[in-house]
Amino acid sequence: LVDKNSGAVAVIGLGRFGSSLALELTRRGTEVLAIDHRTAAVRSLTGRITQVAAADSTDLDALRQLGVADFHRVVCAIGSDLEASILTSSLLVELEIDDIWAKAISRQHGQILERIGVQHVVFPEHDMGERVAHLVSGRLLDYMEVDEHFAMAKIHPPKDYVGIALGRSGLRRKHGVTIVAVKPSGEEFTYATADTELAYGDIIIVSGRPDQVERFAELP
Ligand code: ADP
């Protein structure tokens, strides 16, 4: 059913995280094999993604029968059941999957998954908590920390930078940040240039070091 050589992804564990992952991959045109041992989870996704199967992912034979071993990329989206998460992940390592992603619900859980040999451990709850903290505490409309040293934020321009060309504003020298894109109200985003003049009501994307982006976003 699924063409495993086409960038298809197997998603194991169809809780809130796994099922939205499976649906989003599908929306982007990726073929997905989704697996859960709960029939309710399987039923709710049937017909909405390429293939859904009911199976216990801690059972090596079940994984083999579903063809999981042929996938280049597999996500273990089991979180709260630590034992199932660790057993499943270790079977994926045993099956020599090239690219294993697994969700962890704590730092210790993440360390175990890394030690087993999972290449990509993600912490969705923790990361989302950090992101929401930025959103609720400040004037940020959206915020993404690309890595430890680089962030992007969506904000309204501080008043000192309204009505002056970005090239003459001294913004980068004073604040260390760069305005990447601007969306005047009612229009689409365009790249910012040295000639761009911001207006009240614009939405801007500002990038730079996380602390500098945050400080810039706090300006009145
Ligand atoms: P979320 O917080 O994203 O809802 P959960 O950890 O609560 O994530 O959900 C994990 C999913 O993984 C559940 O749907 C559960 O039925 C499934 N799951 C847990 N153990 C197994 C297993 N051994 N085999 C298959 N699916 C499993």
TrEMBL record:
Gene Ontology biological process terms from the UniProt entry: potassium ion transport
Query: Its Gene Ontology molecular function terms?
Result: monoatomic cation transmembrane transporter activity
Task: Identify the InterPro entries for this entry.
Answer: NAD(P)-bd_dom_sf (IPR036291), RCK_C (IPR006037), RCK_C_sf (IPR036721), RCK_N (IPR003148), Trk_Ktr_HKT_K-transport (IPR050721)
The superkingdom of the source organism is Bacteria
Pfam families, A to Z: TrkA_C, TrkA_N
Q: Where is the RCK C-terminal domain?
A: 138-220
- PANTHER family, per the entry: KTR SYSTEM POTASSIUM UPTAKE PROTEIN C, POTASSIUM CHANNEL PROTEIN 2-RELATED-RELATED
Name-wise, this protein is Trk system potassium uptake protein TrkA
